[in-house]
Structure formats: structure tokens, C-alpha cells
Amino acid sequence: MSPRVLLLAGHEPTGRAGLLADVAAVLARGGQPVAVPTAQTAQGTATFMWRAAAPRVLAAQIAAARELGPLHAVKWGMVPGAAQLSAASTALKGADAWWVVDPVVRTSRGEPLTRLSARAYLELAGPRVVLTPNLDEVAWLLRRPVPRTVAEAAEAAEALARYGFGAVLVKGGHLPDVEGLADVLATPERVRVLRGEWLERAPGRRGTGCRLASALATELGRGRTLEAAVRAARGLVVRYLRAG
Predict the structure, then answer these.
(1) Sign of CA dihedral 118, 140, 19, 72
(2) What one-character DSSP code corresponds to residue 74?
(3) pLDDT tens-place string over residues 148-168
């Protein structure tokens, strides 16, 4: 099965991150990407700006995509504000699809990418919704310091899962107390630490979070179990980094 995956993200023309990175990840996992830009962005070494998509256009693009076939998964990336969130959510009503919510609130350099509150992201929770924050996003969502240990990341993942998410995958990166990589996967039943090899990121290799969330959405849309989907998504990111 080749799942149709709706990608809601900002368009960053170089493809280092955002919508084009999402498309690349879905194609790499054998899915069919449906790319709907929530914003247009410009992100260079000195230039930075973004402009939100018109809610009416956003809703129409999603409606048109649904007319052409079922959506098996939705990946939420950059959501500029409440108007875009409302338009997309309304347009998706009744869709039988997994959601993967990647709360992209800032660029890697710290520039803001959304006007949404943490509460707005937490209210997207549901039994078929997977939240995929990094450590900084965890701190923002929970209004607490950034996790600095695996134990703190695990406790934060468990706290986020209690909002009603089907699962929370905290992207740990290189936590100071770990030699290697440690992500944390929390479900209502248990919390698991997923370890792996930490790879040096080559210059220009951005958008790992975008790619992981999009690959995860593709695998969930295909019908794979959560654990198998997470494993496949992490594998895609490893291959992406090694290719650099």
C-alpha cells in the first residue's frame, strides 16, 4: 500500500527543511505526498521572513485533495496561527487518518515560526495523534526547563502523553548524559528510551525533525504498528545524515 500523506508545513524553497523536506521523506518511504503550504518562508544566512497562507486557500487545497482520494495520514509542521489551524482542522473533519504533530515553533537559529500558544498544540491531542517535539519544544509546551537528562526527557514525554495523545516521541538529539542518541517514546501504557548512534551533522543538513515526522506519518498511514513506524522513521533520518 502506498499511503497518501497530507503535509501541512511552511514552504522553504531550498528544501533543507519544511514542505520540500517533508515531500522527500514521504517519497523515500514509498508514500504519496500531498503538499499544502501553510506559509511561505525565506530563510537564508541573513534573510528571514514568513507570510501565512490564506485560510480560505488552505481549506480549499485540503478539500480538493480529499476529493481526489482518501488521506491515510496528516503531518502537521509549521502552523502560523489560529486562523490556519482552524481552517485545516475544519477541512479535515471526518478524515480517517493518523496525525503526526511536529510543533515547529522556531527555526534552529531561534526565529519564531508561529503565533500559536502551547495550549493550541496540546488541544490537538487524540488517540490517533502522535506528538514529536524536540527538547526545546518540550520545554515550551510544558513551561518548564529544557530536559538535560534521559530521565528528564522521559518524565516530560510521559507528562505530554497524559494530555491524551496516542503517543509522544521526544527527539532527544545528543543529551549531555548519553553517549549517542536517545529518543523517548511514551504511550499511555509505557515509556521507552530508544537509543542509537549519534551522527555528526554535515553543514546544510537541516530538517531532520521534519523528515522524521513525515516518515512516521507515512508508515502509520501504511498501517504499521507505532513501534515499527518509529523505527522506520528513525532509520530514514540516519540514512539522510550519513548521505551528507
Answers:
(1) negative
(2) E
(3) 889 999 999 999 999 999 999
